[in-house]
Amino acid sequence: MDEDPRMVRIAVDPSDVRAEVPRTLYGTGMEDVNHEIYGGLDAQRLYDESFEEQEIEPVAGQGVRPKPMWVCGRQWKVSASSGGRMAIDRREPHLGDVAVALEPGAGSVSLANAGLNGWGIPCRAGRRMTGHFFAKGSVGSLSVSLRRRDGGTDYATASVTLDPTDDWQRVDFTLSPNATDPAAEFVITAENGGRVLVDDAYLADEPTNEFGRIGCREDIVESFRRQGLTFLRWGGSMANSWGYLWKNMRGDRRPYDGFWFRTSSTGFLYKEFVQMADAMKLPCAFSIYAYEQVARTAEIAEWLKRFDGDIYVQVGNEECAGCTPTCGEYTIGDCRRYCESLRLIVSEMRKVNPRLKFVCGLLYNSAHQDVMDEGFRLTDGLVDYWDLHLQLFGTDVVNVVEKARREVDAFQDMVRRINPQTRTGLAVLEENGNEHGMRRALVHAGVLGVCRELGDRLLTSCPANALQPYLQNENGWDQGQIFFTPDKTWLQPCGWAQQMAASSHRDLLVSSSSDDAQVLVSATRDRAGAALAVHCVNASESPRPLALSFADGSKWKAVRVTALTGDGPLADNTPEDMDHVAPRDITAEFARQQTLPAYSYTVIEASRQL
Fold first, then answer.
1. Are residues 305 and 444 in the same domain?
2. pLDDT of 58-67, one tens digit each?
3. Are 479 and 440 in contact (CB under 8 A)?
4. Residue 462 and residue 11: Cα distance in Å, rounded?
5. Residue 300 to residue 295: CA distance in whole angstroms
């Protein structure tokens, strides 16, 4: 019988150990693009909590004109009867630049908020929601409620009482819905005369665990856990000089001029992020402004002493690449300015908290190797890792992975040229792909193979972006690993690929090869030499019969074979079919005929046969 011309031969040598694979390899990166935080991970269910968007037109990040699906201001809707009215008050806001004056007259006036982009606020029968707002003044009666968005049935109502004072006062409330509605709205109503100022409103599900108490949306944290993540990264544009300075990061909920949106919230920031990572028992990295006042960074270092886990502080984000006065120009002068600031910050923070580790935010770019060389000389011995952002764009999976390999190799060449004994490693804090379908999963699985070759010189590889609201692809960052609506979360293919890789982790990279350019392979084994994992990316559009051999003559039996595949490069998951592209156990099929499915990521877990 003639051999199938599609046959791919994969050879593995379990005795040839090439590197030690870091357990922290399987990361995720988040920043407030696409409302990952405000409107996503942040437990806050209201959007525009301080009414800042009531008088402005929509403005998108980076000067791009807004599209209809973007957040577009005026998040609160007003309804009134019998002369009731709402007015903007700029004289004495509690928070930000404006407050809202409710003047019910002989009737009533209500403000309704349906959350991010008016999607709706999920309420569940018997699940309490808690919140507060600040008020000043006096009206006949004041109440809050959850109701159907057509203005019909109230699911829960609570009357609130104001103290007789001329000062702002916090009004706390609890709402216990008697029905379930995935898209309700929250309403503040004033009736029977008087005038009251309202500002700084908050509504969240009553916490059921430590993550809820930190201020996280609990179901999103559960999705992080479902991925099997081993590292968390927080940063990106939120650390740049566009307005997200540390002075806005003291933990109070307040509006600020965001990079991506005209108004945003500081309700969930680096402190909540670090607490979340600590509760998940995961190491984490977060970014600070590259030119922050040194005294303030010392305060951060002091606050971080309370945590036992590994914490990495990245100084800046993509410095000399759009985050300096030269707006994208890579110059030696910008590099030196950044490195001097980094030296002052790291020296002070390390003096206050010696356990901290540091990541250089000077974005590695091999096209500007002269600047990179200068930056490495100035930071060698000062930082623990350099940041590398991989730009994984293109339709050919193998070519995209090879581009990533060339950039990683260029970084290693720089290290070997300048100081081969350096202790500075590499941290891939962003894998950018600009799509969230099956192709992105295959590219990520291939990049993990490249990263394993770095061994313990690598900290992690974090696909960006961790989260994305369904159908809310603001700013072109359409690459979420976890998608969410107000009441659901689910993994996209890249998130599943990360889960497959993490769940089959073995400590040691061993030699492996494929005789088919369209099939990428990476193999790892445990320290005892008893368990093996072979990671195969079939980038072709047809199944590949597989001939798997072991160069050291050992015998292995596949005990579990898991495959992730989809009906095309853009195949993804939706709220109606959340597991359309999900890992599938093909162990029985593989035992009958060893085949790699078309356009797939397959992990073959095997045990040594004695």
1. yes
2. 443 333 334 4
3. yes
4. 29
5. 9
Q: Which two tokens stand for residue 356?
A: 């901290």
Average pLDDT, the chain: 90
Is 478 in the same domain as 461?
yes
Q: CB–CB of 397/442 below 8 Å? A: yes
Domain that holds residue 183: 52-204
- What's the helix, strand, coil split of the chain in %, to 5? 25, 35, 40
Helix (H, G, I), strand (E, B) or coil at 583: coil
pLDDT digits (tens, 9 = 90+) for 136-153: 999 999 999 999 988 778
Structure confidence by residue, pLDDT tens digits, 492-532? 999 999 999 999 999 999 999 999 999 999 999 999 999 99
Residue 189 CA, distance from chain mean position: 36
Decide: 44 and 265 in contact? Cβ < 8 Å. yes
Q: Clarify whether residues 91 and 111 are in a common domain.
A: yes
Cα 290 from Cα 293, distance rounded (Å): 9
Q: In this structure, what token pair is assigned to residue 195?
A: 């005038």
**Is residue 215 domain-shared with residue 181, that is, in the same domain?**
no
Q: Nearest CA to 288 among 234, 339, 333?
A: 234
CATH number at residue 119: 2.60.120.260
Q: Is residue 275 part of a domain?
A: no
Give every CB contact of residue 320 below 8 A, 6+ residues apart in sequence. Answer: 326, 329, 330, 331, 334, 335, 338, 362, 363, 368, 371, 375
- CA–CA dist 317, 189 (Å, integer): 44
Cα-to-chain-centroid distance, residue 77: 30
**Residue 262 lies inside a defined structural domain of this protein:** no
Report which of 283, 236, 270 is spatially closest to residue 31, judged by C-alpha positions.
236
User: How far, in Å, CA of 234 to CA of 279, rounded?
Assistant: 15
**CATH number of the domain encompassing residue 417:** 3.20.20.80
Question: Do 78 and 14 fall into the same domain?
Answer: no
Closest CA relative to residue 445, chosen from 393, 410, 496: 496
Answer with the one of 504, 528, 550 that is the final residue of a domain: 504
Strands 27-30 and 231-234: parallel
User: What is the SS3 assignment for 37-51?
Assistant: HHHHHECCCCCCCCC
Spatial CB neighbours of 1, under 8 Å, sequence gap ≥ 6: none
- Cα–Cα distance for residue pair 573/575, rounded to 1 Å: 7
Is 481 contained in some domain? yes
pLDDT 10s digits, 275-289:
999 999 999 999 998
Residue 288 in tokens: 């600070």
| Domains held by the chain: number | 3
Question: Which residues fall within 8 angstroms of residue 228, CB to CB, at 6 or more apart?
Answer: 26, 498, 499, 502, 503
Residue 31 in 3-state DSSP? coil
pLDDT of residue 59: 41
Q: Which of 216, 243, 244, 246 is nearest to 232 (CA)?
A: 216
Is residue 267, in this structure, part of any structural domain at all? no
Domain stops at, among 449, 484, 504: 504
Give the pLDDT score at 154. Answer: 95
